[in-house]
Amino acid sequence: MDWHLLLLFSAAFTAAVAVPGPNVAFAVAQALKHGVRATLPGAFGFGLATAVHATVVLLGVGLLIHDNRWVLTYLRWGGGIYLAYLAFGSFFATSESSDAKTEMSSQRKMFADSFLVSLTNPKGWLASLLIYPGFISPHFSYAIQAVALSLTAMIISLSIYGGYMFLAHKARAAFDNKAALNKVTGVIYATVALCLVLLPY
Predict the structure, then answer these.
(1) Contact residues for 106 (Cβ-Cβ < 8 A; gap 6+)
(2) pLDDT tens-digit profile of 83-109?
(3) How many structural domains are present in the chain?
(4) Domain of 28?
(5) Which pLDDT tens digit goes with each residue over 113-147?
(6) Average pLDDT score, the chain
């Protein structure tokens, strides 16, 4: 394993993930609405999606996506429609129950939602297609490098999205009105949906 390349990959991937985009906005909205405890599983959802991105790209399947950009169009519209649904739900949300069963269900939903949003985000796919191949050395085992890059990317994703969620949770204290908080998160969901379907990638 070329540790110098791994270090450079870490810097490049961190920069790509940390730049605010649909994933970051979604993570912030989730933490604002539900708090960091309920949404922390969402960070693992982003981490798992990162592993899927890495696996697809490093197995060479990513070349199919690169040559067939219509796949990204379907992904972005699917994600946009789902986020629009979440926005609608937030605007008309009622007070939520806080029992243990509801909280566990909410945590599972946070994980699934984050995973789905990340997989339907064309920015994530394009970043993966551009970054991973450039940090593979021909002088070392491809399999070992692929595993090392994938694990590193997962750790970075977990850390950054978890960090954004924690910061959003801190800002959540400024909202003492649950209805207003739901409206804010609804606006964020709707904005992310528009970004997915309208912004070029």
Answers:
(1) 34, 38
(2) 777 777 766 665 554 444 445 557 788
(3) 1
(4) 3-198
(5) 888 888 888 777 777 888 888 888 888 888 888 89
(6) 77
